[in-house]
Structures are given as structure tokens and as C-alpha cells.
Amino acid sequence: MILATGVSHAYSGVDVLRDAALTAAHGEVIGLIGPNGSGKTTLLRTLYRALTPDQGTIRVDGVSIDSVRPRELARALAVVVQEPAGELPLSVTDTVMLGRIPHLGTWQRQSQRDIDIAAEALDQVGAEHLVDRDFGDLSGGEKQRVLIARALAQQATHLLMDEPTNHLDIHFQHEILALVRQLGVTTVVVLHDLNLAARYCDGLVLLDRGEVVTSGTIDDVLQPTVLEPVYGIRMQRLVAEDGCPQLLFRSLREPHPQTHTHGSREHVEARVR
Ligand SMILES: Nc1ncnc2c1ncn2[C@@H]1O[C@H](COP(=O)(O)OP(=O)(O)OP(=O)(O)O)[C@@H](O)[C@H]1O
């Protein structure tokens, strides 16, 4: 379980996070959503101690992360964030094996089991064919999948992800998030795509200008009345055949249509709630 309370932070005296709170119960996938610059990455960084907030506490399974040693923290939290280009001059295998380091003793070499776990992680993200490549030569989407494999190989009890679907094609956006759900690992994931959030998250935290506007179930948060003023865009909420709410978007610059677009795929497959 991840519990963040009263988290505030300022960069050079400018407040970017005020009294933010987040709860991810055991096994839940919680989506962190909000417009550009609303503080999602800042809040996520406080959860894995990449950033010490000015105020607030972060607890993982009831223990304050301030009191945990780095190796212990790495066994509890795996992180997938955007890597600066060219940061890892490593092979794909070595990159994924980095995920095993928290499980090795100081001078302990990797075992066959570690190698098997890394290979399985690559397989899970559909990247087994990349095993002999250099990480730096991969495409953006391939790199992203390898970084997710590294997090899976870490076998941490909690997962933090900052826009993991960035660079991924539509197939892998869904594959990766479906996999994350399947893992049953307590997860906090920053997502821009609200429809992916609707489909793969158990709950959402909506940030706007550094404050939590609302948090709760998909049904609570994914409402045009809640989201339109925050994002400054018109939304229409539909329910797909499998019951999953999905949103359609229209710029405020576009005139309000007097009639619906009959015959569109959305109208065939979903009904307006
Ligand atoms: N290192 C930094 N120094 C100064 N300001 C920063 C720093 N990092 C972030 N900020 C500012 O803090 C605010 C919140 O940034 P943050 O990256 O948390 O937002 P975000 O919601 O993740 O945005 P996006 O959706 O665009 O990725 C922004 O105004 C950003 O410019």
C-alpha cells in the first residue's frame, strides 16, 4: 500500500504541489491524471524519494520511506520513468539485469534464476527478440518496453510509472497496461490518456495546478463536469459494450453541434450515458 499525505513542494520558492494526498491500496492500480504542469511527475518523484517534499509523509506498507535503506526501497518500489536519451550505454540484457541488483548481495553474482527472471520479463513485454541489441540503438517504443521489463525483473511489491505508454503503439499501450493490471502489484501510474486510465485503473487522482481536485473511482472522476473545467475541453462520456466508460473530446473553439453524428462507430458500439 502507498499512502501519501499532505505532500507540498516548491521549486525555487514557486509552489507546484500543495497538500496532495494519494492512496493506492494493496494490489490497486491508481492513475495520476491532470493537465501539463499540474504536478503529476513531482508527486510521483516524491513517492520513490527522488524528490524530498517540503512537507508531507510517504508511507509504503505503513513504513515511512525516509526510514528505509536504498536497497530495501528498491525491493519495495520499481520505477519506470522517461530516461534521458543515451543514458544507458548497455545491452538490452544488461539493462534488464539492473532490475535484479536489489536482490543480490554486495559481491554476489547473478544466478541462472536472475537470468531466467530477466528473460521472462522481456518476454512479458514482447521484447524477447531485442535481447542481443544495444539499448541505445532501440526505437523509443522498444526502449520503453525494455525499461518496463527492467521494472518487472525487479519484482518489487509496488510499481511507479510515469507515462509508460509514451512512444508505444496502440497495441503495446493496451498490452502493457493490461499486463500491469494482471500483475496484481500496487501501482501508481501517470497517464495522459484518460481512456486508457478508465480501462486499466482502479481509481484516479486528478491534479490541477498542484492540488488534488478530486480522487476516487473511475466513475467519480471520469465525469465531464469534473474534467471539462480542469482540461478546458468539451467531453462526451460514453460507455463501451463491456461497460467501460470512455470519453470523446472536442475543442472549445469548435461550435457546439446541434445534432449527433449518426452512424459513427462510437454510436454503434457505445451508448451515451
Ligand atoms: N526541477 C524543476 N525546477 C523548477 N520547476 C520545475 C522543476 N520540475 C518541474 N517544475 C515545474 O513544476 C510544475 C509541475 O511540473 P510536473 O513535471 O510535476 O508536472 P506534470 O503534471 O508532470 O506535467 P506534464 O504533464 O507536462 O509532464 C511545472 O510548472 C514545472 O514547470
TrEMBL record:
Output the Gene Ontology terms for molecular function.
ATP binding; ATP hydrolysis activity
Domain ABC transporter residues, every copy = 2-234
Question: Which key words are in the record?
Answer: ATP-binding, Nucleotide-binding, Transport
What the entry lists under SMART domains is as follows: AAA (SM00382)
Q: Does the keyword Membrane apply?
A: no
Mention any Pfam family matching this sequence: ABC_tran
Residue span of region Disordered: 253-273
The reply on keyword Transport is: yes
- In its UniProt entry, what is this protein called? Histidinol phosphatase
Q: What is the lineage of its organism?
A: Bacteria, Bacillati, Actinomycetota, Actinomycetes, Micrococcales
